[in-house]
């Protein structure tokens, strides 16, 4: 079964609480947006992923896109994760997994799965990368390539 939304399809709108306040996707029209779905705060691969963005902060800022992480932990857990690791990505709390399910980044057994969805200024999905095992992640260079493609 194909992952939804697919490249070329509109990105489903959503609103979630986050570490920088509420985030509503439709309020970011006119901007490129990168959704980083990830399994959990303070897990080995997720920590490595978000610290890699922190460690290349200048390159990360040069993406010229709004980038947010999304997982099922609550905002307090996200704030602790950010504070503990000095992270530079706002994190959104998808406690019931509704947004992850809308983006085919959720499994009943594992919860939120690692996936990257790149959305253009008109709200259309332009790139999608689903990680099969969740043991790797998109680097800053990978994100730069995805954003440069449109």
Name the descriptors:
two-stranded antiparallel sheet; alpha/beta; 28% helix; 150 residues; five-stranded mixed β-sheet
Overall description:
With 150 residues, the protein is of the alpha/beta class. It is built from five helices and nine strands. It has a five-stranded mixed sheet with strand order 5-4-3-8-9. The chain has a two-stranded antiparallel ribbon with strand order 1-2.
* H-E order: EEEHHEHEHEEEEH
Lateral arrangement of strands in the main beta sheet: 5-4-3-8-9
Q: Which residues sit in consecutive blocks of at least 5 with pLDDT less than 50?
A: none
- The proportion of residues forming helix, as a percent range, comes to 25-40%
Number of helices: 5
Shape: globular
Largest sheet: 5 strands, mixed
The CA-CA distance between the termini, in Å, is 26 Å
Q: Give the overall pLDDT as a whole number.
A: 93
Radius of gyration: 14 Å
């Amino acid at each position: 079964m194909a992952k939804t939304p697919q490249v070329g399809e509109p990105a489903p709108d959503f609103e979630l609480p986050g570490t920088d306040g509420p985030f509503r996707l439709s309020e970011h029209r006119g901007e490129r947006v990168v959704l980083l779905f990830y399994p959990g705060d303070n897990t080995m691969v997720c920590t490595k992923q978000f610290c890699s963005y922190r460690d290349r902060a200048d390159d990360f800022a040069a993406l010229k896109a709004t980038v947010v992480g999304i997982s099922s932990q609550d905002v307090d857990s996200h704030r602790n994760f950010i504070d503990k690791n000095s992270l530079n990505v706002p994190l959104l709390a998808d406690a019931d997994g509704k947004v992850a399910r809308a983006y085919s980044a959720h499994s009943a057994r594992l919860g939120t799965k690692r996936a990257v969805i790149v959305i253009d200024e008109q709200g259309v999905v332009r790139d999608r990368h689903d990680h099969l095992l969740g043991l790797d992640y998109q680097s800053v260079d990978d994100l730069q390539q995805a954003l440069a493609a449109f």
